[in-house]
Amino acid sequence: AIDKADRAPKDELDEEELVKAVKPLIEEGGRILQEANGVIRGLDPDGRIAANAKHKTASREASSEEYRLADLLKELTGHVTETIENAKKKIADMPHAKKELNPLWGLLSEPLFQILAAVGLLLSGVLGLVGKLLDGLGLGGLVHNLLGGLGITKVLDNLGLGTILSPLTGSKKKK
């Protein structure tokens, strides 16, 4: 819908129709990511996986499953961040759509961040692998800027957790 609106002549563009078409899609994407986050958090109710991950991280071991998970998280992060950034660019000259849709991008990015944090807590070495994969695609900075734009990095800084995203975004925070 956004691509079609982007190609439409200005005099034929109905921004309200665009908002009506895209808003439910963003909301549904957010629900799907929230559901995935809940499933991931439910995988380790007693903390055993997290304890095992801490042990493996200390010994610098990563299983083939952890590498596969890192690759899948890289794909998910890449798709979500590229979708958000591309959509923002395409609606930049559509004032009504921009006003209505820009606040909704958090519905996609916040659960993505929660998924990355949950997996990172379960398998702490995985975030570093995801970060390396994203940097290889040139997306490390994009993810950092997206999270910063949503205020997530500032919240983590205020909680004293500012360095938790460093492996993912490639940024080097000073303590």
TrEMBL record:
<dbReference type="InterPro" id="IPR054256">
    <property type="entry name" value="DUF6987"/>
</dbReference>
<feature type="transmembrane region" description="Helical">
    <location>
        <begin position="112"/>
        <end position="130"/>
    </location>
</feature>
<protein>
    <recommendedName>
        <fullName>DUF6987 domain-containing protein</fullName>
    </recommendedName>
</protein>
<keyword id="KW-0472">Membrane</keyword>
<keyword id="KW-1133">Transmembrane helix</keyword>
<feature type="domain" description="DUF6987">
    <location>
        <begin position="2"/>
        <end position="162"/>
    </location>
</feature>
<keyword id="KW-0812">Transmembrane</keyword>
<dbReference type="Pfam" id="PF22485">
    <property type="entry name" value="DUF6987"/>
</dbReference>
